[in-house]
Specification:
Blueprint: E1 8-10, E2 13-26, H1 65-77, E3 85-86, E4 89-92, E5 102-105, E6 115-120, E7 130-142, E8 146-148, E9 157-159, E10 166-172, H2 179-196, E11 208-217, E12 227-232, H3 235-254, E13 262-267, E14 272-278, E15 288-289, E16 296-297, H4 300-308, H5 314-323, H6 328-335, H7 338-349, H8 354-372, H9 383-394, H10 400-413, H11 417-424, H12 432-445, H13 447-454, H14 461-471, H15 478-489
Parallel strand pairs: 12-13
Antiparallel strand pairs: 1-2, 2-10, 2-11, 3-16, 4-5, 4-15, 6-7, 7-10, 8-9, 11-12, 13-14
Helix pairs in contact: 1-4, 2-3, 5-6, 6-8, 7-9, 9-10, 12-14, 12-15, 14-15
Pfam families: GatB_N, GatB_Yqey
Subunit structure: Heterotrimer of A, B and C subunits.
Family: Belongs to the GatB/GatE family. GatB subfamily.
Amino acid sequence: MTEHAYRIQGATGEWEVVIGLEVHAQVTSDAKLFSGAATTFGAEPNTQVSLVDAAMPGMLPVPNRECIRQAVRTGMAIDAQINKWSRFDRKNYFYADLPQGYQISQLYHPLVGEGAIEISLDDKNPDAAGKTIGVERIHVEQDAGKLMHDQHPTRSYVDLNRSGVALMEIVSRPDMRSPAEAGAYLSKLRSILRYVGSCDGNMDQGSMRADVNVSVRKPGDEYGTRTETKNVNSVRFVMAVVEQEAKRQVEVIEAGGKIVQETRLYDPDRNETRSMRSKEDAHDYRYFPDPDLLPLELDDAFLDECRASLPELPDSKRARYEAAGITRYNAAVLTADVDTARWFDALLDAGASAVPAANWVTSELFGALNRLGKDIAASPVSPAQAAELLALVADGTLSGSLAKQVFEVMLETGDAPAKIVEDRGLKQTSDTGAIEAVIADVMAKNPNQLAQYRGGKEALFGFFVGQTMKAMGGKANPGVVNELLKKALG
């Protein structure tokens, strides 16, 4: 995938890192997995808790069809095996934020089986190879509540708003071999979930988090003992965990120690992982089929409806853009996030030509949004207005520099480009008579440069172009200016 494989340099030679990710993604749904309680982020503690979520005696769970549908659509988006028959299991453990004393999950018969995600590490290089990362399974399960330790000097409070929220656990194969690959996989997975609409991907709100499994080995050896760093909530932090944890493991092994299979936590302030609990005595979760829930049996009509509802996904969209002549890099940038891709598609639908539109969006629009601190969904300029601006450039009404001026006014006022051109007199002129008169004047005012040019100093041609454009306030058509200057200078 890269010319030089990622290696940790230890005292005893090179070490290879082996990475697998378990990503918990909150399913986009108005209700929880087995109850009708709301799932809005940021609600007051314990205001979104039904009797089912609080595990009141006699309450029975009822699966939420929409949560199952979203998980199936996600599986289809990564070409995974969809299991028509799946089953819920109880994972038994006792913790203050788990009112039932068990979590309903799917250990033995998950909803979604094996799939794959394609990643790329070098979008600027048209010949760069990609890599396929295997996905072992996707199962649906309930989230637990949340303990709050900072609300009281001697007590911990519990907020059950998240209790029973639907999660997809997306388990990769241990196919990644560098921090960059882990980052690319998580970014691509997030992008796919956002395209499908099955998870909003807001990692800062906890709706997507990763457990990072890391082990090291001498290249080609058997897998080493792995550690699992829990609940990492950004792509950057996942990459940092891989790097720091791999270095730590190499140091431990080379100092004669052994890696303990354990759960760790990442501290971003100190950029280090810390031991949380050992897994040497693996918990006996006493999994068994949930007696309150029948197996899930999916019929063909349901699966057909799920498949038909899928949008064009990032890889297909990117191939379509590249086929239209857009560079590999621009196509990757435009398809990385669903909001950008939708905005760009709306721009094309409004009549813009693919290549100039791609160049304009990735340079002018992104630059402006960056300055304004806005994302594309909040762009002050609509796709229809942008298409109008690009059309004025294409038909020669505006030069590149005039288009930049008009765009700045559009950002400030929200006015349409044609109105701005009219109101401010910014139209580019291709009137040959007017341009010829200015050229004659420029030549008359610069006899020395004219003599030097005619004496063989051809680099001065640019000087005459600049002087002519300046005299016409940037409104002359550069192509016409070049043509007429060549004639006039002889």
